[in-house]
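Module 6 notes. Inverse folding takes a fixed backbone as the condition and produces residue identities as the prediction. Think of it as a translation problem where the source language is geometry and the target language is the twenty amino acids. Below is one complete input and output pair. Work through it position by position during the lab.
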């Protein structure tokens, strides 16, 4: 038994489901890069699209059931955290999904089996495969089993996802979406520092710094949120 076959068997065990349709599971585990330069193979992009919707419905239903008194704003923030790329990647790592992926030659050497985007998308594709084989109730139960640790966490939603929180605040106040602008990039190539400004129309402006463009954007969003809440 080669390493990937073993990884697929182990994955099914962790999912608590042995797929009857092995081709469906194989498609869920096939990254688009597997078609590079050769015959076209069925990849997981369409399944990822479906799985994203299944995951969203499961999490939305669960949040409403668990907290009947929560308002829509609080539910939306928690929802965004639980269906985020980071959350899907965490779940994917917890079941060693990356080891079961079908990738183009060389992708493993560059670390693709643990690349957040790749494993998060594959996680959603596997959810779609579960849905197609088991129907919604069976797939929902397995999603809840996998997401149980995340659902029990207490998180600061503003701090963990400040860009989403800022966008929701802007929409609630009737403003245009936040606009991010790179102000400066300093430091050596191996250790740069980015400074980003975020503005919401004429309503507000703030800046933030970070070691990556994404980190600087998050810092700027958090700074502006703190301004709006009076925690300067």
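Target side of the pair, the amino acids:
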């Amino acid at each position: 038994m080669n390493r990937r076959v073993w990884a697929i068997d182990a994955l099914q065990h962790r999912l608590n489901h042995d797929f009857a349709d092995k081709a469906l599971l194989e498609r869920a585990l096939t990254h688009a890069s597997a078609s590079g330069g050769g015959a076209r193979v069925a990849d997981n992009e369409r399944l990822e699209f479906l799985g994203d919707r299944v995951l969203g419905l499961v999490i939305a239903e669960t949040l409403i059931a668990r907290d009947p008194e929560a308002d829509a704003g609080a539910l939306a923030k928690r929802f965004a955290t639980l269906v985020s790329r980071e959350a899907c990647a965490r779940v994917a790592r917890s079941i060693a999904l990356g080891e079961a992926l079908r990738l183009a030659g060389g992708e493993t050497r560059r670390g693709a089996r643990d690349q957040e985007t790749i494993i998060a998308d594959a996680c959603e594709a596997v959810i779609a495969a579960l849905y197609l084989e088991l129907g919604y109730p069976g797939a929902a139960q397995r999603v809840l089993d996998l997401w149980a640790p995340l659902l029990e966490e207490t998180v600061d939603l503003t701090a963990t996802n400040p860009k989403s929180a800022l966008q929701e605040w802007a929409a609630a106040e009737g403003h245009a979406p936040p606009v991010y602008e790179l102000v400066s990039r300093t430091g050596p190539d191996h250790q740069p520092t980015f400074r980003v400004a975020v503005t919401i129309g004429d309503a507000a402006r703030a800046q933030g710094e970070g070691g990556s463009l994404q980190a600087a954007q998050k810092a700027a969003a958090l700074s502006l949120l703190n301004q709006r809440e009076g925690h300067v």
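Reference fact for the lab report: The mean pLDDT is 88.
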